[in-house]
Amino acid sequence: MHIRVERGGDGHVVTLEQAADCSRLEIEAVDLGAAEVTSAVLGAGAAIALEGDGYLISVPWLRAHAGPSADDPAWADRFASMVEAAQGGRYLADLDALPVGPARARRQRRGPGDAAITGVALTPFGNFPGVTAIEWQARAAVAALADANRSPAEIDGLLVGYATTIGHLMPANLLAEYLGIHPCVALGVSVGGATGLAMLAQAVALIRAGSARCVLVVAGEDRASGQSRERSLDILAQVGERHYEVPLGATIPAYYALLASAYLHRYGLAAADLAPLAVQMRANASGHPGAQFRTPVEVTDVLASRPIAEPLRLLDCCPVSDGGAAFVVEAPTGPRAVEVVGLGQAHRHQHVSEADEGDFGARRSSGAALAAASLDLEAIDIAGIYDSFTVTLALLLEEIGFVPPGKAGAVARQGEFGAGGILPLNTHGGLLSYGHSGVAGGMAHVVEVVTQLRGEAGSRQIPGHPRRALVHADGGVLSAHVTAVLERGFHES
Amino acid sequence: MTDAERDVDELQGGDWTSGRTALRASACRRCGHRWYLPHRLCPACGAHDTERFDIDGTGTVAAVTVVHRRSGGGPPIGIALVDLTAGVRVMARCSAAAVVGQATTVRIAAIDGAAQLPVCDETP
Fold first, then answer.
1. Is A221 left (phi over 0), alpha (psi -120 to 50) or beta?
2. How far is A312 from chain B (nearest CA, A)?
3. A72, A54 contact by CB (below 8 A)
């Protein structure tokens, strides 16, 4: 890796280049004194912190991890002296001479088939009449490509989620033509709320198999303004059984309300015990300018909101929104790439009457993803968990194992899912408050954790330089489960 | 009618969705799993060797909701999941006062002046 520091504009220009030999870190200073180099390299936002069995050296554009001696400041000192020694010339550090930490060892085992998210985009969500579904998709796609520094012509794989307002048989071909791109692989994907993560998993599989080099994953629709609320309610109810459930007057809130009823009964809880999850999602959304609902609410507001399907009330339910999201998946490249280090899925039922309440599939899915990453839940710094309803979030958090059974609301009440809590969760506000534009709604969680792992979340940035994230989504009535474990790091080109 | 539709039609034949006042369920002869929805193959193990038969409606309320926001509007309705002693879970209309854990019997009745539906016995 080659770092070049020079004077330019009204500050310093720091250029980072990947080198073929990634075991060497080279710092090149151009006509700069040591103090200036130090200031530029270890500039704003930089930190050297003890983490686990090693040191986490973190600057906005460079992060390295080495260890293993927790009581040995040598690596920190070496980094500082490395910067000073760059004065007037070059300094070469042989990273292989440094003790190798567990994260680095794991990356080495995975080899050349690694895949990473190199670009993300999320539009504002809300009710914005006049923008079509395909246009939401195109806006998100163009922004994600720009973020990944890729041109449309470089896309050879395109995965697109279904849009209820289009209802087209071939969503990916539709978008490819609209964008003027000609991918070698194009697939429309449909597994309800899990579609975004399922597309991520498929994109990673295409990269690892060598079937594509640069995959664009897109979803978006005008779900709020492009059809009536009645139409949305009816379409979503169809995840139920068409002859045995839907004719009874069941809606998607009703299916989840049934799960909520059983959940509250099982643990001797009341609706007020789920409300803190809605309160926290709203608090998180207040920091994101793109969120549909940003005005803080209290538990009393949730309980006073109108009943939708008891025990769920309006503020226990996500809204219906317009908007789009996209990401680019390719081999890890550049310091902003966030690697997909583990994936898991579980598909155990479609209809609520066939669901196993002790084993919906979230534990299996997340367990597989963590095992693939050689990590446990303790290693996760931030999470993005599907939250179509407060009860969805509670059931998923508990089955994954982030909190003990029956305790999700109590943990939320303590503020542990806020930016400064034990597990920063859905820091964009989740489906409950950022909004739910169908498949794009489930992709927003991915975009948010990638933004946080990159250290680019601005005023929402969680402390402690988060390194690993777990994202989980469900589709249907806790029917389809997909989990991804993401990790930022030192990427090899 | 496609083969798949004919299969479903045969499976549903004889239960409340085709006009009779009966609840029916299926059982797997291989793994013993029992289920309510009209699937020819066992949803637990995929076996083809399954049977479908009339069942009794006695059971216990496992979950309940009162739906206020209804498709097409109308007054609130109660919907329950009922665990029948026959070993399957059935969705049925119920009273807004139904609670989890209470004993009930699911019968087939015309409700809302419309088609016949499974209804918990205390439904007004």
1. beta
2. 9
3. no
Alpha helices in A213-355 (DSSP H): 229-237, 252-267, 275-285, 299-304
Interface of A with B in 349-378 (CB under 8 A): 349, 351-354
Burial of B111 (0-12, 13-18, 19+ CB in 10 A): middle
Q: Specify the range with the lowest mean pLDDT, choosing from A106-115, A335-344, A459-468, B54-63.
A: A106-115
Beta-carbon contacts of B112 under 8 Å, excluding residues fewer than 6 positions away, are B74, B77
The dihedral of CA A164, A165, A168, A172: what is its sign? negative
In this structure, what token pair is assigned to residue A461?
A: 């940035």
ipTM of the prediction: 0.92
Contacts of A446 (CB under 8 A, 6+ apart): A117, A120, A196, A197, A200, A325, A327, A384, A471, A484, A486
Q: What is the phi-psi region of residue A401: left when phi exceeds 0, alpha when psi lies from -120 to 50, beta otherwise? A: left
Q: Which residues of chain B are within 8 Å of residue A233 when distances are taken between CB atoms?
A: 69, 71
Stated pTM of the model = 0.81
Bridge partners, residue A474, by sequence: A481
**Three-class SS of residue A84?**
helix
Inter-residue contact B31 to B42 (CB < 8 Å): yes
If you compute the radius of gyration of chain A from its CA atoms, what whole number of angstroms results?
A: 23
> Inter-chain contact A352–B91, Cβ cutoff 8 Å?
yes
The tens place of each residue's pLDDT in chain B, 124 residues long, gives 566 665 655 676 789 998 888 999 999 999 999 999 999 999 999 999 999 999 999 999 999 999 999 988 899 999 999 999 999 999 999 999 999 999 999 999 988 776 799 999 875 4
**Backbone phi and psi for residue A5, each to the nearest 5 degrees, phi listed first:** -120, 125
Q: Which amino acid is at A425?
A: L
Place of tokens 């209820």: A164
Number of CB pairs, chain A paired with chain B, less than 8 A apart: 96
Least confident of A6-10, A250-254, A330-334, B82-86: A6-10
**Phi, psi (deg, nearest 5) at residue A146:** -65, -40
Q: Which residues of A389-412 are buried (b: 16+ CB within 10 A; e: fewer)?
A: bbbbbbbbbbbbebbeebbbbebb
Give how far A473 is from chain B: nearest CA, Å: 23
Backbone angles phi, psi at A423, to 5 degrees: -135, 90
Q: What does the alpha-carbon distance between residue A387 and residue A278 come to, in Å, rounded to a whole number? A: 9
- The verdict on A430 touching B (C-beta cutoff 8 Å) is no
Residues in Cβ contact with A181 at an 8 Å cutoff, skipping those fewer than 6 apart: A152, A153, A155, A158, A216
CA angle B32, B38, B41 (to 5 degrees): 50
Average pLDDT over residues A371-381: 94
CA B53/CA B32 separation, integer angstroms: 14
Residue A60 has pLDDT above 70, yes or no: no
